[in-house]
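dumping these here so i dont lose them again. two proteins, back to back, each one seq then structure tokens. dont judge the mess
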Amino acid sequence: MSHATHWEAIYRNKAVDQVSWFQPHAETSVRLIESLCPERTARIIDVGAGASVLLDDLLDAGYRHLTALDIAAPALAVSQSRLGERAVQVDWRVGDVTTIALPEAGFDVWHDRAVFHFLTDAADRRRYVSQVLRAVRPGGYVIVATFGLEGPLQCSNLDVCRYAPEGLHGEFGAAFELLGHRAELHRTPAGREQAFVYCYCRRG
């Protein structure tokens, strides 16, 4: 089964508020984006946007240049339906983050909550970092959240990589200046707690 087929099946068979990564509001992500790049004209891409409400929260906060990328079209369709008329304010893209064509220096902020930790193959992680280097303008910001060291070993029946902040930043290398990191304890709809780590960097 391809990655796209796997994720499409999840979004067809589960309610969006029952998947383990569901958040009623993307509070940590919004706070980080606002603190790093308060200009409402910022070009922001949400990688693995799925049915996340981050887009809603950013539109509510006044951001207007938003791109949503996900490998599963049904996931983005949920967000488009939820946003209604506001969906036209988002550039919707379906594809694999490691291979999709993205505009060179096209973004001021790259945001990813819970995609990178699914890249268990080192070659896929290198391709991901290459995409970030190409798509984020010099001086732009990169926010990546993964499972922390105390997080689960699997998610949605797929193996994941768990990271300490230093290890996560190390995957990106010297081209990215680590500005900070923070831990988050996410409570799933089933009541389980999952340890996340957020790292935020400036692209050199």
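---- next one ----
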Amino acid sequence: MNSGMKSEFINEAVNAFWEQEACGTQESIIGNLPELSPAWFRQIEAYRYATEPYIHSIAQFTRHSGSTVLEVGVGAGTDHVQWARAGARCYGVDLTQKAIDTTEAHLSLYGLQSSLHRIDAETLPFPNNFFDVVYSWGVIHHAASPERIIAEIRRVLKPGGTFLGMMYGRHSLVACKLWIKYALFEGSPWKSLTHVIAHHMESPGTKAYTCRELKALFSEFSTVQATPIMTVYDRKRLPSWFCKWIPDDFGWFIGLQATR
């Protein structure tokens, strides 16, 4: 199978997974609330920022009022609403129609607007040097070819423009727990962290990186910062005394800021 066919196959599988429900809208979060209702969206937003409060420190939505902002992977539109509320000129793309429809409904609830497109972000439908900011939280690592998306992000950013976002960290407690469950306990300790993440974390083919690898992926940018973040997902089912001694270097999230 050539690389083009492989990429198409993986992205089809990713699409099928996320078309079932937009990211962040699973039943464990929203319970029995009516889908797309005001209460449903409020619960999604409350849960997201309670469990991932560092989104605000990385995105700093209000600092970008008046900026032209693209979000790659809009999910349930929770962060997209923050960009619009902050006064950004918003554009958004997603691989799934489910996410586009959910985000449109979310924006409409507050009378907000954005130009949304259902497309594969490996080919963005925007001219060169168009955006002040491109934002993507926990999305690029699901693609078949993250390097293509990153190249497209750089292309559509203005000189001096900023990428803000997050990608998964391979040397993390989350990855370690996955390896113990799906490799060690299954009698296959030779399976790598990369293998278990690709087969057992969300959509098929999910990737995770080291900070060094992410800096290499963004090497065409003039500057790049990669900062590991210890998350509630790392600490889950682990004693608090143990987690207290584990540094952020072993966090599942790696926050990113890169300047074109």
